[in-house]
Design brief:
This protein folds into 2 domains: 122 residues, no CATH class; 119 residues, no CATH class. The chain is built from 12 helices and 6 strands. The protein has a two-stranded parallel ribbon. Strands 3-4 form a two-stranded antiparallel sheet. The chain has a two-stranded antiparallel ribbon with strand order 5-6. The protein is globular.
């Protein structure tokens, strides 16, 4: 009993939290970690040097090969899981869970193998369509990993929003909104491919990219980027979301002459 109590107290006093990278690498209960490992082993977009294993979300400037990092991939797959189990009931003490708590509890216990297989199919379908239909991704995959393939997509001039972690989760959320309409990821990606993701374009300046400091804007703009992408591809926004998009857009631009009317006129030019 003394040894047991000492072990318990030592673990609680000195144990360090496990990093997300370790969870992704080792967790056999978290379905998102399981599926992320599956992608790393089987999807060309995430093999070897095409996926950065840096412990922070930002991709180091010196990395000229990786499409994204393991943390952003995990976050994107978490959004896919939210959609995948949106109609599934998750209970704790007979209480129906929603939102973040629902995902957390669902990932605590390994689901049945049949459910894991179905989610793997769903995620494979998403990333395969993404890889085959999004033009800059197709171009990136054609380049040799030893020849700095990401240089034209992520650089000091900005590059492409899709190759920045700040744009990847909003992209997934927008794609899922379109998928809700037609249930076909190939059609979804074909439409998403028509969006202008060039960070040097006026619409993304001071929203995702600061052309003065030559740096990305803080990740807190993720919601605005999500709303803009949805608006561009024709997803119907609620009046609340539309108003939030216009107001946030004006605030981030920092232009005193940019009225709501002018902001609407600017954004509508990019609708598909």
């Amino acid at each position: 009993m003394q040894r047991t109590r000492r072990l318990f107290s030592t673990l609680n006093r000195y144990a360090k939290p496990v990093s997300l990278n370790d969870i992704i690498a080792l967790d056999e209960d978290d379905i998102v970690a399981i599926v992320t490992r599956h992608l790393i082993e089987n999807c060309e977009l995430f093999k070897e040097k095409r996926l950065n294993n840096h412990k922070q979300k930002a991709i180091p400037e010196k990395d000229k090969t990786a499409f994204t990092n393991i943390i952003s991939l995990y976050e994107c797959n978490t959004e896919l899981l939210k959609y995948f189990i949106k109609d599934k009931e998750v209970l704790i003490d007979s209480k129906l869970l929603k939102g973040k708590r629902k995902i957390e509890e669902y990932c605590r216990k390994r689901p049945p193998e049949e459910d894991i297989a179905k989610f793997i199919d769903f995620v494979d379908n998403y990333w395969a369509s993404f890889s085959s239909k999004i033009t800059p991704i197709k171009e990136y995959l054609l380049k040799d990993v030893d020849e700095a393939p990401v240089s034209s997509f992520r650089n000091k001039e900005g590059g492409n929003l899709i190759f920045r972690p700040i744009g990847q989760r909003p992209f997934v959320l927008c794609a899922l909104s379109l998928y809700e309409i037609n249930k076909d990821f190939e059609q979804v990606m074909a439409k998403m491919d028509l969006v202008n993701y060039d960070l040097t374009n006026k619409v993304w300046k001071f929203i995702a990219w600061n052309p003065i400091s030559k740096k990305m804007i803080a990740s807190s703009n993720g919601k605005l980027i999500e709303l803009m992408l949805k608006y561009f591809v024709g997803v119907e926004l609620s009046s609340k979301d539309y108003g939030a998009m216009i107001n946030s857009y004006i605030e981030m631009k920092g232009d005193e002459e940019l009225t709501p009317q002018k902001a609407q006129e600017e954004l509508i030019k990019y609708r598909i």
